[in-house]
Amino acid sequence: MQTKRQAATLRLIRPRYEQPRLKGGGKPRPHSGRPDRPETLFSAGETVRETGIYEVIHDRGHREAHEVVMLNGDSFPACDTCENRVRFRLVRTAPYIFQDEDFGEPD
Q1: How far is CA 76 from CA 1, 29, 45, 66, 103, in A?
Q2: Residues 6+ apart with CB under 8 A from 90
Q3: In degrees rounded to 5, what are phi and psi of residue 98?
Q4: What is the sign, positive or negative, of the torsion defined by CA atoms of 57, 61, 62, 67?
Q5: Residue 37 has pLDDT above 70, yes or no
Q6: Domain layout of the chain by residue ranges
Q7: Which H or E element spans position 88?
Q8: What's the mean pLDDT in 67-79?
Q9: How far is it, in rounded angstroms, from Cα 47 to Cα 58?
Q10: Residue 11 has pLDDT above 80, yes or no
Q11: Cα separation of 70 and 53, whole Å?
C-alpha cells in the first residue's frame, strides 16, 4: 500500500503545452469554414459564387448527402433523379489548386 508521500513522488510531470508551428509561415489562406455566415442552400442552375466543397442534398433522400467540389463561375447541376429539386450547401471554401498563387495552370 502506498503512502501519500509515495503517491506524490510517482506523479508524472506533464510538459507545458506549446502552440504547434504552422506550415506556410503563417500566411493567411483564402479558405474558411465560414462559421459567421448563415447557412444558405443553392439550387440547380444557380451560379457558383465561391469555389469550395459543397454538400449535395437530394430530394426525398433517394441518395445520401455527399460532398463535391464546385468551381466559381460554374452552374450548380441538376440531378439525374431528383432534377432541379437537388440543393447545395457550402461546407467550406477551398481554392482550386491552379488558382492558388503557389501553383500554375497546367500546360
Answers
A1: 69, 25, 5, 14, 26
A2: 34, 37, 40, 42, 50, 52, 53, 54
A3: -85, 0
A4: positive
A5: no
A6: 31-96
A7: strand 87-93
A8: 97
A9: 18
A10: no
A11: 6
The one-letter code for the residue type at 30 is P
- Residue located via cell numbers 447541376: 77
pLDDT number for residue 47: 98
Q: Which residues of 78-101 are buried (b: 16+ CB within 10 A; e: fewer)?
A: ebeebeeebbbebeebbbeeeeee
User: What is the model's pTM?
Assistant: 0.62
Using the 8-state DSSP alphabet, how is residue 85 labeled?
T
The share of the chain scoring above pLDDT 90, in percent, equals 49
DSSP string, 21-57: PPGGGG---S----TTSPP-EEETTSBP-S-EEEEEE
Q: What are phi and psi of 42, to 5 degrees?
A: -110, 150
